[in-house]
Amino acid sequence: MPVNENLHDLLTRYGVIDDELGFHAVWCAGRTPGEVAGLLRVSPGSAAQCRLDDPWEGLDQLNDRDGVLFVGAYRDWTLVLQTVGVKTTRDPALSILSSGGRRALAIGWDVNLRGRLTYAADGRILASMVLFPPGRPRGIDPRALEQYMDGIPFEDGPDMEAHAVSALRLAARITDGGVDRAWLESPQTRWIIPADAWYYGW
User: Fold this and answer.
1) What's residue 202's pLDDT?
2) Which residues of 23-59 are buried (b: 16+ CB within 10 A; e: fewer)?
3) Mean pLDDT by groups of 10 residues along the chain of 202 residues
């Protein structure tokens, strides 16, 4: 997918961005989908091949605090879309995913538009930025994000959708496009993260 395509529109079209649930995604370079799922502490027996347009198939007994995520390979990255919960976009998960010389990028916001984009490499959180309204990258290496930001408008103001569009353009630049229609239309592996898999909250 061309990086200049509106990733926000694409994800909204496929129902991945939800006004009631927000949006939560992680990209990891250097690990297979199976490795990523295991490091995220999914329930080992929960894997199922599902399309994103029918994410609830077979989940009648889902605990209301469990997480639901889709994991699949995208170019040189593994993409994780968490459709329920926020655990995958937190710093502890990114530190683990990026350990051993790997990279990880997370972007997420909740229904109240509390959002953040975070970039990690080799087990360290290098830079992070607030999304609504957008702030400048902060962390031990802000340049890790700033080098990709040229020409992307990150301006203060009330247009929350514009802020989300800019944040996803940045994510697409870093991850070779972010995602494409083929990925969104193909079955991916759906996993469950048990409510008690991580020490921090929902």
Assistant:
1) 36
2) bbbbbbbbbebeebbeebbbeeebeeebebeebeeee
3) 67 85 93 97 92 81 83 97 84 96 94 90 97 90 95 83 90 94 95 79 40
Report phi then psi at 80, rounded to 5. Answer: -120, 120
Q: Token digits for 197? A: 């898999």
Q: Report the alpha-carbon distance of residue 103 to residue 123 in Å, rounded.
A: 8
| Measured torsion, CA atoms of residues 32, 38, 39, 41, in degrees rounded to the nearest 10 | 150
* Token pair belonging to 70: 């889709």
Rounded to a whole number of angstroms, the distance between the first and last alpha carbons of the chain is: 33
Q: Are 128 and 138 in contact (CB under 8 A)?
A: yes
Question: Residue 201 is encoded by which pair of tokens?
Answer: 């909250």
Report helix, strand or coil for 66: coil
The burial of 84, by beta-carbon neighbours within 10 Å (0-12 exposed, 13-18 middle, 19 or more buried), is given as buried
Whole-model pTM? 0.92
User: Which two structure tokens, joined as six digits, stand for 189?
Assistant: 């592996």
**E-state strands within the chain:** 23-29, 48-50, 67-74, 77-84, 103-109, 115-121, 124-130, 188-193
**Using CA atoms, how far apart are residues 81 and 25, in angstroms rounded to an integer?**
5
CB 131 within 8 A of CB 163: yes
